[in-house]
Amino acid sequence: MTSRTTEPERVRQLEADLDRVQDRIDDAERELRLLKTTVNAIAPKSAKVSMGNPCPRCDRSYLLFDHGLLYCPVCPYRLVL
Ligand SMILES: [Zn+2]
């Protein structure tokens, strides 16, 4: 026995799926905006640390720059500048 969905039902399902995906994207973008704002506000006060590009080795964090050293807080990537 197979269940068949009609075209309008499929369209409604796809629209509902799209709404859920859009909500998740909106939540992720909001979270990212909050985190970036918080990090940029904390970094200058806590140390002479600034945030760089995403880590080219692991891509799990932005690189940090501190006293001539560019490093990743997650993996062993280090670069002396
Ligand atoms: Zn890394």
SS elements, strand count: 4
The major beta sheet can be summarized as: 4 strands, antiparallel
**What's the pLDDT, averaged over the residues?**
88
Strand order of the largest sheet: 1-2-3-4
**Amino- and carboxy-terminal Cα gap:** 67 Å
Number of helices: 1
The amount of helix comes to 40-55%
Low-confidence stretches: none
Q: What structural category characterises the helix and strand content? A: alpha+beta
Q: What number of structural domains do the residues give?
A: 2
Ligand list: zinc ion
* N-to-C order of helices and strands: HEEEE
How does the overall form come out from the CA principal axes?
elongated
3D structure, described in words:
It is a single chain. This protein has 1 helix and 4 strands, in the order αββββ. It has one helix at 7-46; strands spanning 49-54, 62-66, 69-71, 78-80. The protein has a 4-stranded antiparallel sheet, covered by helices on one side. The longest helix is centred in the N-terminal third of the chain and has 40 residues, at 7-46. A hairpin with a 2-residue loop joins strand 2 and strand 3. It folds into 2 domains: 1-46; 47-81, no CATH class. It has 81 residues and is of the alpha+beta class. Helices cover 49% and strands 21% of the residues.
